[in-house]
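Please review the protein record below. Let me know how this chain folds according to its tokens.
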Amino acid sequence: MAATTLDVEQLTELGRQLRVDAVRAAAAAGSGHPTSSMSAADLMAVLLGRHLRYDFAETQNPGNDHLIFSKGHASPLLYAMYVAAGAVSDDELLTYRRAGSRLEGHPTPQLPWVDVATGSLGQGLPIGVGLAISGRHLERRDFRVWVLCGDSELAEGSMWEAFEHAGHAGLGNLVAIVDVNRLGQRGPTRHGWDTQAYARRIGSFGWHTIEIDGHDIDQIDRAYAEAIGTSRPTAILARTRKGSGVAAVEDREGQHGKPVPDAEAAIAELGGRRSMRVEVTAPNGEPERLRPDTGSLRLPEYEQGDEVAPGPRSAKPSRRSARPAPMSWLWTARSGIPLAAGTSRRCDRRDSSSATSPNSRWSRRRSDCRCGDGRRTWRRSLRS
């Protein structure tokens, strides 16, 4: 069946379907992270069925929302979503983690709907911040960036740098969905199900925070609607149970990163296989991509004998000639000052000299004059 507007009962069924397909994919591969996928299945069912705006047939549509699985090991859930959206076939789902399959253990841009490879915890949210900044200030589009995070990765410093930057930038188009399932790879997380502990810290960076039961369809739906209506970045802290729906693995330690013990029994417990198809809402507006205006761009060009400063910060206006002069740029790590490689200035001595600061690892050396008009090339190099 295909559905355009899903009610609560249908969303509940969709969540179970996503769990079943995650179990099936991991069972076919003999590996994977089905329990990490099952905890976030209801969260993703509501997102896919009601709030995500994405045209799976036109992946380059600049109005498409962005969905990033920062907890990339939950890839069976992402691929199950693609099956529900009609983008991936059921047969391809069962090629999960096989050699040559597009459905790798962690999502990669080999799939046209994946923006970035994830799996190293703490990377997805910072990338989401960059996408949200691009949408607001560069592309000037109204797409939304949804990032599914795990509670274990909230121990990564990169996550908190991203929270701070997004709050400072006021990125109201960014939503972090934190799957607080309490269990990490080696045992319970530091704060367990204490979502208030996370909310206090994230809120201190200027985020709007919402604490919910991550298996309550109505609460999830209201949280997404509230996030869309706020002008600040939103963190939805959802209390979930790892392996939700299957008693043998639900909220049990030692079940991370492996198929469920009995896949057939788990599928039966979840109500069996389903074949729901969701018509995901397409973005509004025109599909044309905004392009920067480069018509007025003109690069500086130099003639032999022109006096040019070695660094662009103090460069003087120069004459332009008909042909471009190629120039490369080096970025100095210590000072952060760009240096033009190959630029030169007129010299008044023909002997080689060098100047090195005694307090710096960097030296600036003037090479011997290599042309008849007395010009000398400048370069920067590491002192041996």
